Every structure is written in structure tokens, then in C-alpha cells.
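Troubleshooting log. The previous run stalled partway through. Resubmitting the same two chains, unchanged.
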Amino acid sequence: MSTSDAARWPALWAIARTGALSSRTRSRVVALGSAGAGALLLTVLAVLRTPARPVPTGQEVVVVDTYYDPGFSPLVTSAEIRVGVLTGILLVTAAALALVGQALTTGSVRRRRTTRALGLVGVTPGELRAVSALALVRAGLAGGLLAAPLYLVLWAALGPAADPVFRLLPAIGWPDLLGWVVVVLACGGLAAAAGAVTGTARTWLPPLRWVVLGLVTALVAAVAAVPVLGTWDRRAGVAGVGLVVALLLALALTTGTGWAYHRAARLLRSGTAGAVLTAAGLTAAAGPIGTAAAVCLLAGLALGVSSTLLATTLATPVDSVYAGQLPGIALTATAAGSALLIALATATLGAVDDLATHRRTWAATAALGAEPELLHRVHARRLRIATVVPTTTGAAAGALLGTAVTGAGGELIPLTAAVVLSCVATTAGVVLGLSALVSTLLRGRLARAVDPHALRVA
Amino acid sequence: MTRTPSSRPDEPAVVLSGVGYSYGRTPALEDASLTVAAGEVVAVTGPSGCGKSTLLMLAAGVLRAQAGRVQLAGQDLGSLGEADRARLRRREVGLVLQYGQLVPDLGVVDNIALPLLLEGRPPGDARRAATSWLERVGLELTGDERPGELSGGQAQQVAAARALVASPRLLLADEPTASLDPRAGRELLDLMVTTTRSSGGSVVLVSHDNTVAARADREVRLRAGRVAHEVGLA
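Second attempt completed without errors. Output:
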């Protein structure tokens, strides 16, 4: 780098500090999301440190006898139940990371304008990336640092319980410290990388169809490999569950945007003013809507599976194969509920960003003669599409999957059917209510978005 | 669907009486008055920042006057709520803004059809009317193109088609031909004026361009937010 290049850095740093390339809200959400994900990862590492009874091998159905280590809850000492617990924690971690991803895309229109303007005065793409990375690295590092106190809060709740049966986490030790250092560095590094990627107008992404094809192939291969590798070895099955969950999340996140476009095309065919404006919004914010929908789908799926397992377990004799897993299933259901709340936060963030970045379109539509009530209905409908439809679909699929897994038949069929229906109806009702609440709370922002002053500048 | 005009045919299309408007502490219009008669074409001219666009937005009821009174189609806009002003606007007014007024994620035909869809026209009818207007403004497009794929001039032609599709009684156009070549600009201007006038409507054109002003019956010059003088051109 020449001296003249180096001389530009104070100016570039000054630009980074103005928030032109990363707003305060974006940085805060990135920091909070990273802190949450970091703390949950530290929890996962701690759970893995607790002594566990290994998963039995072989094809025979083994009654899961909960292994009581004198110091810990069977939730973490029984390897099979532990998988449920870890899946639940990782689900919430994935939701927190999706929220971070959503935050990273906010303000993209404003950022693109800024980077173009800076490019016009001679700032190189490399410098733009560096400035953008600088703007986010602080948020990432702050999130990583915050992960420790957040983990301590979790540890205080789950670690030092007087009764060992409720104790999920081991005592704080040097592995926690080491894990924290890794989390801080990873958060800072990933935030910087994300900043660099979002720092220029051109972001390279592989063609969607190849991503989808790759993920589907990987998913099919994983599902096919599990029984082949271990002739349905239970350990391979346990590993397979984790792999399938991870692949499902990746698949949902990858195809979410395409789904939003598909919904928009369907709405356009219906052709009413409300449908057409909803379709325009779905297209404009297909990425954030797709992300929110993907997390909602997975949260719904987890809710569906855990509700069915819970109901089946409660209805079967105490010495059955599922009885020992009851606390794990309950914890997974709680995790699924938490993931759903984070998914709604992700959808809300996308909706708020849409109002801020597309305010000119909102204002122009209002100027055309669209009443405020119609615009509110359009905005609420977009949010409903991003949340209610995927969550309910996920819950229905999860409930059916749960039924298939438990193999509930005979006298359990009416109970299972009732659980499936009530799970889907309750999930739909709750998400519908929360979505309506969010839309109502965003009315003020919508009013600001349709402010005709937005029409004055290009 | 037959549009029911809310105004009498001989009633002025819009009356602005001593209106004022400020953006924060910056005044845009002060004590400006203008009456546009039915069937009249008025050009509003003046230097940049003199309040031309603000006057247009006040006449359309997009902005609410902070001082004075605006009557659109015989109705006092100050007494109407936001929703009522929106309904009145879409029934009476066709609006062409300077830039960025098209919905970027809708195709050209859907953009043009939007005023009709907002009025509750069947989607098929609305799209047919929109396609016909696409041809009338001289655009050879499939109709599926997004605004981002159009040139500035094409976007202005689409905006004009959208303003005309619902046969407004008052057409308000802010620099409607600024991005068009002289010939295309003239043709579009002719189309806007003759179409609106043939149905008894009025036109207000905001422009720096003398050829646009020459197309009007009357020119109103603004200076520093006030009406400096009026010139009869017809």
C-alpha cells in the first residue's frame, strides 16, 4: 500500500464510524444475536463435558433407562436424551444466527447508495470491504464478549442446582474460558467477513438451482447413509438426526427466497390491489422474508415433533421406550417455542427494514390513492405470509413426522390425531395473534414510511 | 365500472387559497393561490426550489396545507382525513411525479393497472386497459418488464400511462417530459392534454421547459414560494 493509500484510512475510518455502512440498530442486533448464539454454543460445549452413558449399538429396540450420574440430571447423562437437549439448544442457536443474518441484510439499499457514492469519488472495492468489515467487527467482538455473562446467567439457572437431578451443566472451568476465547474470536472474525461480503454492491452468490440441487442431494445421501453405515445403528441414527436437522435448516434458508417469489407470483395472478401490492412487497423483500419463513418452518417442525412425542409419551405406560425421554422432549418443545419467538423477531426485523428502505415506494403508493388502512392490511399480510404459513406448515409436517417416529397406532390413533390437530391449530392461532400484534405495533413506522416527504428526493 | 365524478362539470378542478407549507424550518410555499378551471391547462414554472412540486403535492392532497385552504373537486381537503383524501385523489387525480413513483417490484402493466385495481376493477379488465395505454404512450414493451429495466424516458411514459388510465378529472404532472427526447416529449404531452381535455378534465404541468409551458392556456410563475405573476397564453 502506498503512502497516499495509507493516508486515506483516517477518512475511511471516519466514514465507518458515521454509521453510513452499518446502522446502530444493525450493529446492536448483530451483537445481541452473536452473544445469544455464543452463549448457547458455550452451553452445548458444557453439556458435552458431562459424563454420559453411551448409546447402545445394534438393531434391537432398547428401553432407554435413564442413567443417573450422582452429579447431574438424566437430561444430560443419558446420551439419547442428550441428543434431544442438544438438538433443542442448536435449534435456538440456529434461530439466533438467522436473526444475525437478517440484521446483516438490513439497510442494504441505503448501504448500496453509500458504497456507490464512495466508489464515484475513488474509494476502491477493497477499501469499501475493509471499511464495512471495520464497521461490523466491533459488533461481533462485543457480541462474543457478551456471550460470557449471558452464559453465566444460563449456568446460574442450570448448573448449581442443589438437587443434582436438575443440574444440567458442570462447574465453571478452564474449558469454558477457552471456549469463550474461541467464541469471541469467531464472532469478531465472522462479523468482519460478513461486513466485507456486504460491503460492496456486488455480492457473489452461487446460482440458486445449484445450491438447491446440492443440498437436496446431500440430504438424500445423509438419509440413505444412516441405515447403510450402521444397519440402523442407533449411534449412526443419533448422528443422522443432527445431520438431517442441519441440512433441513440449510435447505429451508436456501429455498426460502425462492418460495417468497413463488408466493408473490401466485398473488399477482389473483390480481386485486391488495394482492398485487403484497406481491410487490414479497418480491422486494424476498430475502428477509425467506429467512424468516425458513426459521418459522423449522420452529414449527420442532414444535410439531415434540408435541406429538410429548402426547404419545404421556399416554403410554411409564416403562415404555419414550417415558425416560419426557424431560428431554419437554425441553426440546421449550427450545422450539424459543426458536419461534426468535423467528418472529427475525420477521419483524425484516418488516421494519422493508418500511425503512422502501419508504419511497410506500409513499408513492399512498400518493396514488391507496388508503392507510389498505396499506396496513398489505403490510400485515406480508408479515402473515412470512410467519403463519411456514410455521403452521412446519407444525403439521412435524406432527405427522412425530406420529411416524413413535409409530403410534391402534388405540393411540384418536389421541395422536387430536394432538396433531390441536398442535397445528394452537400454533397457527398463536402465530396469527403475534403477527397481528407486531403489525399493530408497526403502524407508527408505516405512517412514517408513507410520509410524502420521502417523494422529494431521488 | 362507470366512474362517478364527485364534482360538478363547471366547478374548478382545484382551488388553492393562500396556502403555505414548510419542510421543517425551510419554507417552500407562502400565501400561494391558484385556481384551475374545468378543462383548463395550466403550466407552473419557476426556478428550482421555488415550490412548484410542493404546490402540486398540495393540490393532489398528498401533502396537507399548513396554512390556507385547498379545494379539490369542490371538497375542502383540510376537512378530510388521510383515507378520504386518498380515496378522493384516486377518483379525481392522475399524478405524474418527477421520479421513482413506479413500484419497482411490479411489472409495467401491473404498475399502470394499479389505480384501476385500487378502485376495485376486475383484474382482467384493469390489465387490458393498462396494456392498451402502454401502446397509446408509444411503448413497445411486453408489459412484464420491471421499472428497473426501463430507461428514464420509458419510466416517465409508464408513469404518464398510469396517471391517465383511470381518466382523471385533474392531471397533475411534475416535469413529465424531462427525460424524453423533444419529439417523444411533445407526443406524450399532446396525449396527456388532449386525452384529459376530451373528457372535460384539467391539467397542471410543472416544468422548466418552455415548450411544455407553451402547451398551456395559462402560465403561473412562482418565485421563492409565492406566485410571482400569471400569463395567459391561449
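Takeaways: Chain A touches chain B at residues 264, 268, 270-273, 276-277, 279-281, 283-284, 360-361, 364-374, 452-453, 455-456, 458 (CB under 8 Å). Chain A is about 80% helix and 0% strand.
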